[in-house]
Input
Amino acid sequence: MGFSIPISVALDSVLALVMLLAWLLTIICSGKQDTIRANPVAWLAIGLFFFYLIGCTYSVGNREDMLTFFGKAARLMFIPLLLIVFQDAATRRRAWYGFIGAMLLTLILSYLLWLGLLPQGGIIRGDAANPVIFKLHITHNLFMAFTAFVCAVQARYAATPRQRGIWVALALLAAFNVLFMVQGRTGHLVLLALLVYMGIVWLRWRGVAIALAAIGVLAALTYALPSSSLHQRAALAYHQFSAAQPDVAATTGSSIGQRMEFYRNTLEIVRQRPLLGAGTGGFRQAYSDQVRDTGRLATHNPHNEYLMVAAQLGLAGLLLLLALFAVQWRVAAQLPSMREQMLARGMVLSIMIASAVSSTLIDHAEGWFYVWMSGLLFAALKSVHPLQGAHNR
Output
């Protein structure tokens, strides 16, 4: 799935079914339950899934919406599955090769499209002005920002200068793709957050100063390059934010205005049902009731994962989601090497930032990315030994 998640929805579904069958056989035949029992990430993922199951019993949504959202929540059960699948280090290594290979293919094709060397149409979703390939710009830039981070981490811990140079070059190419080629503001935010995180880990407070200086230089370049996607998207966001008025319905042409309206109305839904929310799949109906006779646009998605969870499962469900992220961040420190720790925390940080501006866990590619990466990155917890961790730093 590492190769399919950035590329193909259909292939994701087929591979998910294959993994589910393999997992059931593994559980039955080899008693791998202890692996799940010993991993706190698995327990919290299972707990959040069962909260969605309970949410079906009081949902205000129709049967179709309830089943749709419950099906999306069922992906969480693949986290314990993948923790078993990725117990072997060689399997984890091959999975990384698949993901990085898919992203490098995407990166090469994106540059070719941007340079006018790749024809548009067919499976290619973008054009020279917005050179996305297999996914839309939000997903493309989120994945590419994380890829730039992965390449930077690989460069930091590379065994030879030649390998380090290759990884640095790939990191810079991926970062340029995110910031100056593709129109995905989510990726911009994620990449900047990851840059600050790397600075803090590697250089402590001096790293924060360097990261902030780099962001300042980037801001100056953005201002000086009005034709860049970063300049255009930032200017558009500022204009839409300035034009938004709380007492006037947002127009369909203002994505920022719509999001602000969605957030306000969703917060009102949470205020009305603070403890347990509107139930699994209940968001569409609850939001429709909230905006009825107001002239405002109805939606099935508030474009914020935290608000989506709070609206459906209440503050109790939101606390469980935040607990899952917090535990992942904390137990990442127990992974065998600093490289693995950074990758795990970088993934969690990416999803947490993206979740503030999109409903990541209900979106197909982003949801599978989180589930797959959680299994891949936290499967190594079982083999942690203090001496091994010190040896690998």
